[in-house]
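Support request from a user on the community tier.

User writes: "When I paste my structure tokens into the form, the page sometimes reloads and wipes my input. The last time it worked, I copied everything first. Here is what I submitted, just in case something in the input itself triggers the reload:"
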């Protein structure tokens, strides 16, 4: 029997002032775009923005539904839009923020399991890591070098061969 360990390193910042100008801009835009979420049921408004390798940006917000399971997370709305508008352009960095109108918005939240799987497909398909900037409207900021780090031992297309 062997034991294996998987670990990863990510960066933690105390405020936006510590970020590069580009990362700070992306995070501030993600914070702003939370205002465009449609989240009347959870009141948890998520905003995401991605910088693509061609320099363009694409945004996404969560879109809920009276039939709760129909709702979509901001990350997957963004990835669907990016894939539709710029089908073969990799994503360099995605910033994700949220505004919880029922509680605090002062700590980073990480993408849900389905979004991690969707991010993994995107990374693999375009053969480019997706860097994540995660933060609420205030408080600490996490920078994850690539989204796959959040999905160790993930299932992907190579498993279907
Ligand atoms: N949500 C996202 O949009 N992204 C995440 O990473 C976590 C959760 C949405 C789904 C739902 O509309 C609301 O937040 C509460 O779960």
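"...and here is what came back when it finally went through:"
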């Amino acid at each position: 029997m062997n034991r294996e360990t998987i670990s990863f390193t990510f960066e933690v910042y105390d405020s936006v002032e510590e970020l590069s100008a580009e990362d700070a801009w992306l995070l501030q835009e993600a914070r702003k775009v939370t205002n465009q979420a449609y989240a009347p049921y959870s009141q948890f408004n998520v905003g995401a923005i991605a910088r693509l390798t061609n320099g363009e940006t694409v945004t996404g917000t969560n879109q809920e539904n009276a039939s709760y399971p129909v709702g979509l997370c901001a990350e997957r709305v963004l990835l669907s839009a990016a894939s539709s508008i710029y089908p073969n352009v990799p994503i360099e960095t995605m910033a994700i923020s949220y505004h919880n109108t029922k509680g605090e918005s002062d700590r980073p939240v990480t993408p849900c399991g389905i979004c991690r799987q969707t991010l993994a497909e995107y990374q693999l398909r375009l053969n480019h890591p997706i860097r994540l900037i995660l933060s609420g409207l205030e408080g600490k900021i996490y920078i994850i070098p690539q989204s796959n780090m959040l999905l160790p031992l993930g299932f992907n297309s190579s498993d279907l061969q």
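Agent notes: The reload is a front-end session timeout and is unrelated to the input. The mean pLDDT is 98. Strands lie at 11-13, 44-52, 57-61, 91-100, 131-134, 141-144. Escalated to web team.
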